[in-house]
Amino acid sequence: MLAIGRALMTRPILILLDEISLGLAPIVVAKIYDALKELNDKGGVSMVIVEQCITKVAEIADNIIIQEEEEWSITQNPRIEC
Predict the structure, then answer these.
(1) Is 61 exposed, middle or buried (0-12, 13-18, 19+ CB in 10 A)?
(2) Residue 58's closest CA among 79, 33, 36?
(3) Spatial distance between the Cα atoms of 30 and 43, rounded to a whole number of angstroms
(4) Helix (H, G, I), strand (E, B) or coil at 26
(5) What global pTM score does this model have?
(6) Distance CA 9, CA 27 (A)
(7) Within 10 Å of residue 39's Cβ, how many Cβ atoms?
(8) In 3-state terms, what secondary structure has residue 14?
(9) 29: alpha, beta or left, given left = phi > 0 and alpha = psi -120 to 50?
(10) Can you list the domains of the chain with their CATH numbers?
(11) pLDDT digit string (tens) for 22-42?
């Protein structure tokens, strides 16, 4: 969360988040995604989130691009379960 907070101090229009839940306790992951959802709801910052399990991402995303093997697909207003 500290790294995300520091990145937001510069008032970016885009932030890139790579495997932000990796190795974290579920309660910490939930808090991070709650903060990202709030940020998303307020607008002004776009996010590119790379995750293995996209359940939490799907809760906050407007669009999801999925890559499996060499295939790509785009989902709008996703509600996906891992």
Answers:
(1) buried
(2) 79
(3) 20
(4) helix
(5) 0.75
(6) 24
(7) 16
(8) strand
(9) alpha
(10) 2-76 (3.40.50.300)
(11) 888 999 999 999 988 888 888
Give me the tens of pLDDT residue by residue for the chain, a chain 82 residues long: 678 888 888 888 899 999 988 888 999 999 999 988 888 888 778 899 998 888 888 888 888 888 888 888 877 765 555 5
In degrees and rounded to multiples of 5, residue 67 shows phi and psi of -115, 125
Q: Name the amino acid, one letter, at 33.
A: Y
Q: What are phi and psi of 2, to 5 degrees?
A: -60, -45
Q: Report how far residue 65's alpha carbon sits from residue 58's, in angstroms, rounded to the nearest whole number.
A: 11
Q: What are the structure tokens assigned to 68, written together?
A: 């499996």
Question: Which residues lie below 8 Å from residue 53, measured CB to CB, with a gap of 6+?
Answer: 21, 82
SS (H, E, C) 60-81: HCCEEEEEECCEEEEEECCCCC
